[in-house]
Amino acid sequence: MSSSRIIPLVTRPASLPESPALAAPPPLALYVHFPWCVQKCPYCDFNSHAVRGGIPEADYLAALVADVEAALPQVWGRRVQSIFIGGGTPSLISPDRLNRLLEDIRSRLMLAGDCEITLEANPGTVEASHFPEFRAAGVTRLSLGIQSFDDAMLARIGRIHGGAEARRAAELAGQHFETFNLDLMYALPEQSLEAALADVETALSFSPPHLSCYHLTMEPNTAFGAHPPAGLPDEDVSADMQEAIEARLAAAGFQHYETSAFARNGHRCRHNLNYWRFGDYLGVGAGAHGKLSSHTGIAREMRHKHPNAYMEGAARGDFVQERRGVSVAELPFEFMMNALRLTEGVPTSLFEERTGVPLAAVEAKLVAARRDGLLEADAAQLKPTLKGQRFLNELLERFL
């Protein structure tokens, strides 16, 4: 799942000052949003829409390319380190059109020679049959939305694939991609600790280089948010699941490098690391968010959210619904909200390098967080303690 989704677009009064200019721009990534799914999952709060009457694939992909072109002046001379195609379900894109999209992107943006290109995919039989073609088109990393291998659990959370399809897709991912991720969820309705660990064991049987393990959350403005399912594990059971999963993956040789992310050596998601290190990213597609730094400061953008509004805007050359500068007052929280998700933290020097704000501006808050056992005492590193990881929201509130 793309981490552009976890960085909210915070509104601010127009009177607040813009952020300071940076000495040098941070690394740049590209996020491409594909907003359609076969069916909207009841827990999903992403900008996704169930397919009704077919997907206007050609028109939408043409709008994406025009969006990239319109944004070129903002990223002149900068090399793209990673591309993440998320959604929605971007594996619904036909392989030929995906190949053309990547060709169009390559012809307009400078890509690093080792550019990581991730495609999110669901384990549906038809989509999985296209994995070899997606790899041939230039996708280097597949992220599979497995969630569970248990048919009963999948039905309870509204997934349309079954356990057999999930196993076959994971097997195919391993055959065609050196690097791939399996998304799993735990704390599902009526799920036991043993069932949660059984999903992890099944996932490990496919030798994935990367796993993402998420706690099922009742998000506002979702079907589950309005009507939570029965049988959800309580907080103590959920915490036991989390600790057991972390311990099992550590024993299997995985590095727990971010709140929900686990990787074998050399397989961390570079695209998401760029988010968490407060790098820049150009976001194109319906509802996509972006963050770009320039000589005038740091700006956040959001594209028109509904696919129809986005394509109608594309016809006018109007892609951006909202653009705003990030104020000096907001920068500490925005930086920490990302960087402190990393279990190893970041060097303290990165704070000023990526925000333009001296670390002294938050020194009192850092001292208090260290005193309360939420941050490590190492003055050269901004790193959450185990307590800080467990109570991340409490730690982040210190920087609001």
The CATH topology of the largest domain: TIM Barrel
The domain tally reads 2
Reported CATH architecture of the largest domain? Alpha-Beta Barrel
Distance between the termini: 26 Å
What integer is the average pLDDT?
Answer: 93
Which CATH C-level class of the largest domain is it? Alpha Beta
Description:
The chain is an alpha/beta fold. The chain folds into 2 domains: 257 residues, TIM Barrel; 73 residues, Arc Repressor Mutant, subunit A (Orthogonal Bundle). It contains 16 helices and 16 strands. The strands form 4 sheets. A 9-stranded mixed sheet has the order 9-10-8-7-6-5-4-1-11, with helices on both faces. It has a 3-stranded antiparallel sheet with strand order 12-13-14, with no helix packed on it. A hairpin with a 2-residue loop joins strand 12 and strand 13. Helix 1 runs parallel beside helix 2, helix 1 packs across helix 11 and helix 7 runs parallel beside helix 9. The longest helix has 17 residues. It starts with 27 loop residues before the first strand and ends with a helix. The N terminus is likely disordered.
